[in-house]
Structures are given as structure tokens and as C-alpha cells.
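okkk here we go again. third time trying to get the S-adenosylmethionine bound version out, last two times i messed up the smiles copy paste (missing a bracket lol). double checked this time i swear
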Amino acid sequence: MQRSLFVGGPDSVTNSLVNNSLSSAVEENIQLAAAKAFALQVGMTHPDVIKIDTEGCELPIISSMIDSFRNAKAIYLEYHSEDDRLAINNMLSQTHILFFAKSPHPHRGEMVYVRNDAFPTIMQRDRWRIGTVLTAENRIEEPKTIGQDGPRFTQDWSRFLESSLTKLSPSTPVSPMKVLEIGSFEGRGTRLLFKKLVEHHEESRLYCVDPWVDGYVPGKSQHFAKWDPFFVGQFQRFLKNTLDLGPQLVRLRGISDDMVPAIKDPLDFAYIDGDHSAEQVYRDAAMILPLMKNGGIVLFDDYPWTHEGNRCGDGVDRWLAENDGKVELLFKEYQLAVRVN
Ligand SMILES: C[S@@+](CC[C@H](N)C(=O)[O-])C[C@H]1O[C@@H](n2cnc3c(N)ncnc32)[C@H](O)[C@@H]1O
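finally!!
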């Protein structure tokens, strides 16, 4: 699109498409292109670093190419109104942290956002942290790679899953399986479930339900704050770690209360490993029971896990007692499995 640029009187900073009190008498004819279309044209839809300073037009530009912004490792920007600052923060809050800001006026300032997973460890990100001290217990380790260029995990929270799956499904499934995982984190358990139960039949599906926010359980930081650092950047890691699994993997981003009702497929297998409060484990189990096929299996992780007096297994026990006769206990170890009849 051709437009007139009104050259600024005092300096080039006041050049503008709007003829205003700072404009000189000089006009230039210039060519304008939409940022998204231009990025596409030059093959730069997913740059690592984006700098944007468009004197108040930031919000529509960011909105028009939000995927590029959410993917960028670092974003440098200037904002030009308080509303814009809040809206931009809102748009990037799931994927980035505000790493630096200078706000000399309420309506104008600079911000630098860094993508959650751009730092390999929380320790490296929060060098000057005061307050919650990162100890050996809650420190995020360097992601460990499995194989060359394979998935990268910071934690191994699926230690027991592999042996449970071998016990529950010793041979290759003979027919398509519909599988649900509540609480997928970085995808380590997801990959085990996929390999053991899903990959053999094209019609098989693995539904992964997780809010994937940068903390353990949304809205429950007062109970689980100690664990929150483990979850910073989990969504980006999950996406990378499961990219190769294709359309058989269905990502349902949200808490189980909201996402499980969206599943219409009758389920062969459900793995419950989300919010470990007894109350939510009970709710998750109660929600999925009507979805389970006759003969379907429900597996609970962390049955004995106890934190601040909350024992995960209390929710399982309550559900078992209420469904005595309908569910048959297969084993009760660190994980607990039942068959639904
Ligand atoms: C222990 S991790 C899961 C580990 C994973 N299954 C694995 O094998 O690596 C617990 C996960 O539950 C998720 N979560 C927390 N509250 C949830 C909820 N209400 N519904 C679904 N997932 C939830 C967290 O985001 C976290 O990723």
C-alpha cells in the first residue's frame, strides 16, 4: 500500500503517517506492508528475537501474529498506553516472563519478555531471587536428553508407569485404544502411554489433559507453591517432546474439570496423574467412570503421596468405596489400578 509519510520537524523520531503539529512541510511517498504478510514473504514467521516499537500500533500487530510472538525467545517492545501494557502482558503471560521493564511514564515504557523455557534452569533465570530459596529439593535440573536429539525432560515422574503398563498390557493391543492422561507435564508419561497403547492402530487416540501453566495446580499455589518451580516452561517442553507423535495425540489444555467433559470417546484406559489433592483425584475418577468401557482400566499414580496432610490415596479410597462391585482392584502399590466392569 502506498502512503504519505510526513517527515518530522524536530527529528526523524517524529516522522509520522499522521500530519500533526510536529510534522514539517516535507512529505515522502512510502510503501507499507502488513507485518504478518511481510514476515511470511521473507520466510521469517518464527524468529527467535522480535523487537517492536511502532508508537502505539503494537497491540494490533502483536495480535495479528500472536503465534510468532509466543514462539519468540525474546521480545523487546515499547508500549504507548497503560491499556496496551496490560493487554500485551496478558497475551504473553502463558508463554513468557517479564524479564526487564522500564516505565518512566504510566503510558509509555519498555519491556523485555523472555520465553519460559529460554533458560535451561530456574536457577539460571532467577539469579537474584530473594524469598523462596531454591533448594536441592525444588531445584529444576538441566533437562536430560534421551537419545540423540530426543525428547528432553527435567524430571522423571513416570518411573512406575512403565512397569505398570507392562503388567496391565503385556502384549500389543489387538484393537484401537482410546486413552486418557490427566496431568501430562513434559510428556514423559505421554510417550510411554503412546508407545505401549496407541501407536499400533491408526484409529487409536491419546487425550492429554493439562492446563500447562507455569505452576503446579492453577489457583492452589497456597498449598503447592513449593512445587511450582518445576512447572515453569512445561508447555513448551511438552510441545517439543510430543511434536513427532502426530494427530493421534489430542492436546486438551485446561483443568480436568473443564476438559474431561469434552471427551466423547468411550475410554479403554485412563491414567490419573494431575492435581494430587484427595478431593481432585476423587473428582477426576468420578468424572471418568461413566466414560470407561466395560473392561477398561483406570491407573492412579502416587497413591501413597502425602503433602501437608493431604494424602492422594484418600481420594482413590473414597472412589473405590463408592464403586465397590463396579470396579475390581488389580493392584495397589505406588500406583493403583482397577478394571471397570
Ligand atoms: C506429576 S505431573 C504429571 C507427570 C506426567 N504424567 C509424567 O508422567 O511426566 C502433574 C501435572 O498435572 C497438571 N495438573 C495440575 N492440576 C491439574 C488439573 N486440575 N487438571 C489436569 N492437570 C492438572 C500439572 O500441570 C502437571 O503437569
